[in-house]
Design goal:
The chain is mainly alpha-helical and 88 residues long. Helix content is 80%, strand content 0%.
């Protein structure tokens, strides 16, 4: 629990990224679908990197953080897929 309290700012960064994504989509009402997909790809990729950093930093033992690390890995892969195939 002490490590979670010490590294609270990592969860704060994830929240700020989510608010920035949602705020940008709401503030840009005439954005076309491609722009929203690009913004989502940026959000997913950056969120995944921060989540992986949180998993590696918070857990003293690697096996304790595998669910969080898996979430980060899926998010990074999803962001990469959005950049590779934005039409899909």
């Amino acid at each position: 629990m002490e490590r979670l309290v010490r590294d609270w700012w990592l969860m704060g960064i994830r929240g700020i990224l989510a608010l920035a994504f949602g705020g940008t989509v709401l503030a840009w009402p005439r954005a076309d679908f491609g722009a929203v997909v690009f913004l989502f790809g940026c959000y997913a990729f950056l969120d995944g990197i921060v989540t992986l950093a949180a998993a590696l930093r918070v857990s003293g033992r690697t096996l304790d953080a595998w669910p969080v690390a898996l979430e980060g890995l899926v998010s990074v892969v999803l962001g990469g897929l959005v950049f590779a195939w934005p039409v899909v």
